[in-house]
Amino acid sequence: MNSKTKKPEWAPEDDNAGFACRVMDGVEAGHDGISSYQSVAKTKKAKIFHRPIFTTEQYAQGVLSGSRAMLGRAITLVESNAAQHIDQAQEVLQLLLPHTGKSIRVGITGVPGVGKSSFIESFGCYLLEQGHRVAVLAIDPSSSISGGSILGDKTRMERLSRDERCFIRPSPAGKTLGGVARKTRETMLVCEAAGFDVVLIETVGVGQSETAVRSMVDFFLLLMLSGAGDELQGIKKGIMELADALVITKADGSNKMQAQTARNEYERAMHYLQPSTEGWVSHAFTCSSMTGEGIAEIWKVISKFKELTTASGIFAQHRRDQNVKWVHEMVDAHLHESFVRHAGVRKIIGSVEREVADGVLPAVAAVHRLLEAFENKTS
Ligand SMILES: Nc1nc2c(ncn2[C@@H]2O[C@H](COP(=O)(O)OP(=O)(O)O)[C@@H](O)[C@H]2O)c(=O)[nH]1
Ligand SMILES: [Mg+2]
Question: Measured in angstroms, how far is the CA atom of residue 118 from the centroid of ligand 1?
Fold first, then answer.
């Protein structure tokens, strides 16, 4: 057979020289084009040897035994979007679930530049000295676009990232905050099963990511700068109300006095806010990640919080509520996804939107029409 003239079936009959597509015959050999069929089989075997596929039990056992390599692999499995991985990841999580939940989960938020990463470095190192094992995760839905801001952060967490007792994981890539949040939440569970007793989650993205983090942590820490107006920091009353503690950062050198003044002002302002956690009064503090001043006090506050809310039952109740709410959120997200992908909906949505925009179709009637198309599974 002359492979040079072989054309695909769909090529026009009399295409002449203007038709540029030619199909080459496949070579019955390995990728190098020389090796025989047998050696192809060998290559495949070798591949399996280099990238072993683990059973669900092996993943779970590996994580529980504290193997860092297996922890990394299990998290990669959890983060994967491939259908066969999603099922196995859920089975692994199911096995790990009885071993999760024993950590304190702390969310850390604040505008870019406030000192979140530096705080985590200093706070994390302090916790390691106290005998804790620390996992650091980040929520950053923009990381797939910006190329991962955690790369810059790793340099701020130099000591922490070199310590064996600490595990740092950047945000998984994802198009939606919901997707990133799901993976971060599941990664948190895997870390807990691996024996990390403090999980710190940094919000890197701005906007909605604060609420996403709040919904997966026990204690929510809001970092603030002194000397910058609230507007400049993009801080809304709503976010202050989410905080279990507010910390003025960079309270060192010539900034120390100013930080104290800011702390007092926020302390007064917080008096009028709704408490974030029932039975807990949020306060304002100062700290310096550079000198380490105030770092130990923040851990004391978090420990006190855990003690009080555990005694009152609020701690456990929060986690139960968070889990149930998470299920509802995922159902919402799935329904929305299948709605926008539904062929019948896609067929009419453009014209329905136009009619609504032109003022000829009432909004409620438009919704009915779309839902009718959605519920009609045959269309
Ligand atoms: N003086 C001083 N500078 C700090 C402190 N913490 C952070 N910084 C500086 O503030 C800048 C932003 O810090 P970074 O941790 O990256 O903030 P993030 O964007 O919130 O993660 C960096 O240049 C840090 O060196 C601190 O406690 N004292
Ligand atoms: Mg940072």
Answer: 5
**Substitution site in 118, 120, 289 for ligand 1 pocket (most atoms within 8 Å of beta carbon):** 118
Give, to the nearest 10 degrees, the angle between helix 68-79 and helix 56-64.
Answer: 130
Domain spanning 100-312: which superfamily? P-loop containing nucleotide triphosphate hydrolases (3.40.50.300)
Question: Does residue 242 contact residue 214 with C-beta atoms inside 8 Å?
Answer: yes
Per-domain boundaries in the chain: 3-50, 100-312, 326-375
Ligand 1 lined by 116 (C-beta under 6 Å)? yes
pLDDT tens across 13-32, in order? 555 554 454 445 554 444 44
Ligand 2 center–CA 54 separation, angstroms? 34
The pTM of the full predicted model, rounded to 2 decimals, is 0.80
Rounded to the nearest 10°, the torsion over CA 316, 319, 320, 326 is 180
